[in-house]
Write a structure and sequence with these properties.
VC0802-like; homodimer; Carbamate kinase; 18 strands; eight-stranded mixed beta sheet; globular; 2 domains
C-alpha cells in the first residue's frame, strides 16, 4: 500500500464528464489498495472567467478581493468531485484551504505555504475517506483567504505530499509525461522516464508548461517524488526526483524553447561603474523580467550590453532603454522582436565537457547565427532568429541522440 | 446616523452591471452618513446552475457536498461587490460565513444560525469599512460549511441586523414593497407602508415571495425592523415591524393567493379514533405537505375528510389515499387539481368580527363556490375552483377597500 497525492488540473476537471472520468481514475487507484488524497484546480476556464468579471469592475482589482473571488473556483470542483467519488461507492469529502488548514503568509495572489496541518487529513485517511482538497488556496494568520498564484494547485499537491509523507505526488494532466522536447515540433520527441528536479526546473521555466516552477522547487526542497501522468492514470509517466547515485544520467535530457523573446542591445556604453545598473534598473522598475544578460569586454572604454525580455514588453523596453541611453551617453539602441530561445538541458552536462561545442557546431552547420548565449550548470541557452527555431530544435534533438532511448532507461 | 443592513438578492446582483448599480446605491447610503453592512446572494441563476451540475453527477447529492458547492456562489458576488465599492472610493471588504463567523448547527442544506460573532464586523465598521457578507452560508462547530436553505440570505441579513443592533434590515429587491395583492392580477393593488411580522408571515407563506418566511420569523423573534425596498434604494418601501399601540390597523391588510393547490376528499370514513391519523400519516410519510384540513361532523357514524396538497403531488396523494381508503373501509376518494386558494390577511381581524361574513357574501354574490375553509387569528383562507381565482381576488380586494389608502397611512 502506498500513499498518493493525485492532482488534477483545470483541463482534467473542465466539465461534469471530465470530473466523472477523473473520479473513475481515482477510484481505480483506491481499489488497488492505496491511500489517496485528491487535489484539484478550478474547472476549465473558471479562473479566467472570474478574472474577466473582476476586470470588468475594476482595472486593478484589490488583491485580497481577487483571492476571495478566484478561490471560489476550486470550491466548486472539489464538491462535485466528492459527489462523483461517492457515486463510485467510495467515501469522500471535500476540504477547503481554511478547513485543512493550509496556512500561508499574507501575500495575496502569491502566498507561500507555511504549514499544512495534517491531523484532519490523517483522520480522514484512517477512516478510509478520500479527502478532496482545494488546490491554489490557503488561509493566512488573520483568517484571510489567500491564493498561491497561477498553477498553485501543483504547489498544494506537493505541499500535501510533503506534509503527509506521501510516496508520490502524481500530477495528472493532458500529456502522458515530460518529453525530450515539444512533440508537436519534433515528432521523434520521446517521453522521459525520469528527470531530476533541477532538469525539470530548467525545462519548466523554458516553456514545457507541465508543472508550475514553484512546485518543482518545493518538491526538490522536501524531496517529494513527483510523477507527471496522463489523465487516464495509465502508463508510467515521468518521475521527477533526485538523481540517484547509480543512475547513469544522459548528458542531455531535453531541449526546451520559447518563442516569446525579444532582444535589446545598447551599444557604445561608457565603461563606468553604475551604467549596467542604470540600464537594468529602468527595466526592472517597470516590472519587466529580464532573462539573458550579456556584456562584452570593454573596447576603447566602451561596452555593448544586450539582454532579452518577453516579446510583449519589447516596445516598452525599447522606449525605456532609448531614454536611458541618452542619459548615460551610449551610442545606439538596437533591438529585435523576432528572436527565439533554445535551451539544451541535462544534469549529465556537469561531468561532460563538449556540450556547448556540439551545440555551436550543429547550429553553425545549419547556418543558424547565435545572437546571445547564457549558461548554467545544467543548461546552455542560445538566442537565435525565430525563423530558425524549428530547424535548430530538430537538429539539436537529433545531435544529442534524444530520439533514441538512453541506455539506462528501461 | 443609523446602522443599516442592506441585503441584495440574486436578481439584484445578476451581472457585473447590476453589481455596479447596487454599489452605487450602497455608496449613496454610506455618504448620507450611515453605517452599512451589505449581505448578498449569489449572482442571478448561479445557484440553479451549480445545482444542475451536482444533479448531473449525482441524483441525490450528498448534503454536505452540496453546501460546499452552493456556498461558492456568494463568494463570487461578495468579492466583486467589494471591488465595485472600492471603485466608488469607499473602503470595503468581503467576508465569508466562516470568517465572520456566522455559527450554525450542523444540519446541512437547512442549517439554523446559532450565533453571529460581531467583533470583526464591529471593528470593520469602526474603521469606516463596509463589510460585504456572504448570505446563505455559515460554519458549524466542526468547521464544516453549512447553508441556510433557499432564500437564506434574507435570514443572514436579519441575523446580522439582530446581532449588530442595526436600525433596519433593508431587503433590496425588484419590487418596491409589499402589496395588498399581486399587482399583475389586480392593477388597483396598493403598496403597504407597513405590515406586521404576523401579516408578513401569512402573506409570504401564501405566495407573496418577497421574503423568506424563516427570515420573517427570525425578525419577529428579535424585533428587527425589516424594510422591503426597490433595488434603486429609492422610495419608502414597506416596513415590516410589530404592531404599534397607536397604529389603527386596517381590518384587512392584503389578499394572498396560490394556484398550486389540489384538493383530496375521502368520503364515508368510519368515525373511529385513529382513522384521521391513518389517512394523514400516509401522506406525510411521503413528505407531502398537507395545508388545509377539514373534517365535518359525523353523520350515521361516517365522516368526510378533506385536505389540500401542492398540485404537483396530487397524483401521488390520490394513490396513497385510495389504498388508505380501502384499508379503513371508506366509501370513496374524490379529488381535484383545479383548485386555488385565496387568503384574506390582517391583524385588525382579531378585533373585528364579520370579515368571514363579508368574504362569503362577496364570493356568493360572484357565484363562487367555497370548497374548503380554514382560519387563523389573522387569516381566512378558502379553496375555490381555479377558474374563479382572478374574479375572487379582485372582488375581495375591492370589498375590503384595499384599493384606497387606509386612514392611518401617511
Amino acid at each position: 500500500m502506498a500513499r498518493y497525492i493525485m492532482k488534477f488540473g483545470g483541463s482534467s476537471v473542465a466539465t461534469v464528464d471530465h470530473i466523472r472520468a477523473a473520479a473513475g481514475v481515482i477510484a481505480r487507484r483506491k481499489r488497488e489498495g492505496h491511500e489517496v488524497v485528491v487535489v484539484l484546480s478550478a474547472m476549465g476556464d473558471t479562473t479566467d472567467e472570474l478574472l474577466a468579471k473582476a476586470q470588468a469592475i475594476s482595472p486593478r482589482p484589490n488583491p485580497r478581493e481577487l483571492d476571495m473571488l478566484l478561490s471560489s473556483g476550486e470550491q466548486v470542483s472539489i464538491a462535485l468531485m466528492a459527489m462523483a467519488l461517492r457515486e463510485q461507492g467510495l467515501k469522500a469529502r471535500s476540504w477547503l484551504g481554511h478547513q485543512v488548514p493550509i496556512r500561508t503568509d499574507s501575500v495575496h495572489a502569491k502566498a507561500r505555504i507555511e504549514k499544512v496541518e495534517t491531523a484532519r487529513l490523517e483522520a480522514e485517511l484512517a477512516a478510509d475517506v478520500i479527502p478532496v482538497v482545494a488546490g491554489f488556496q490557503g488561509i493566512d494568520p488573520d483568517d484571510q483567504v489567500t491564493t498561491l498564484g497561477r498553477g498553485g494547485s501543483d504547489t498544494t499537491g506537493v505541499a500535501l505530499a510533503a506534509a503527509l509523507k506521501a510516496d508520490e505526488c502524481q500530477i495528472l494532466t493532458d500529456v502522458d509525461g515530460v518529453y525530450t522536447t515539444d512533440p508537436r515540433m519534433v515528432p521523434q520527441a520521446r517521453r522521459l522516464a525520469r528527470v531530476t528536479f533541477e532538469e525539470m526546473l530548467e525545462l519548466a521555466s523554458l516553456g514545457s508548461r507541465v508543472l508550475q516552477i514553484r512546485s518543482v522547487q518545493f518538491a526538490g526542497k522536501y524531496n517529494v517524488p513527483v510523477r507527471v501522468l496522463h489523465n487516464s492514470g495509465e502508463g508510467e509517466g515521468t518521475l521527477i526526483s533526485y538523481e540517484e547515485p547509480d543512475m547513469e544520467a544522459p548528458v542531455v535530457s531535453g531541449i526546451a524553447f520559447s518563442r516569446d523573446e525579444a532582444q535589446v542591445t545598447i551599444t557604445g556604453v561608457p565603461d563606468r561603474p553604475g551604467n549596467g545598473y542604470a540600464i537594468l534598473n529602468r527595466v526592472s522598475e517597470a516590472h519587466i523580467v529580464v532573462d539573458m544578460i550579456v556584456m562584452n569586454a570593454p573596447r576603447s572604454g566602451l561596452v555593448d550590453f544586450s539582454f532579452s525580455v518577453p516579446r510583449d514588453e519589447f516596445e516598452q523596453t525599447m522606449e525605456l532603454i532609448r531614454s536611458a541611453a541618452a542619459e548615460i551617453g551610449a551610442s545606439d539602441v538596437l533591438g529585435s522582436a523576432n528572436v527565439a530561445k533554445i535551451s539544451v538541458v541535462g544534469v549529465g552536462m556537469r561531468s561532460h565537457a563538449g556540450v556547448a561545442t556540439t551545440m555551436f557546431e550543429v547550429l553553425a552547420r545549419e547556418g543558424i547565427n547565435v545572437r546571445m548565449v547564457s549558461t548554467s550548470e545544467i543548461k546552455i541557452s542560445v538566442l537565435i532568429e525565430e525563423k530558425y527555431l524549428e530547424l535548430g530544435v530538430r537538429s539539436l534533438h537529433e545531435a544529442f541522440g534524444l530520439d533514441r532511448a538512453p541506455s539506462h532507461a528501461k
